[in-house]
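Researcher: Please predict.
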Amino acid sequence: MNVSEIYNKDVYTDSGQYLGKVKDAIVDLEKGEISRLLMEEWERASKDEIRKVLQQKSVLFKNIKNVGDVVLVSVSPQSKQDIPAETADLSR
């Protein structure tokens, strides 16, 4: 599956909560894999806005259970805080 096939799909948790539509993705170029799906674009966002998007409007790709007509994710309270330090530290 190409990442472009996931764009604009609705994202739901496994408990049925609607999270939004896939608007962007973060790709780990070293590993050659998607690390996060974003439900908000961050192209022109400030550092504070980017941090908010990562914490509140994104899901880890490893938490995706299924991609079909919608994207189904398993979201635990811990997974929302699972932002790598190098990503969360935007002051670099």
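Model: Strands lie at 10-13, 18-21, 24-28, 33-38, 58-60, 64-67, 71-73.
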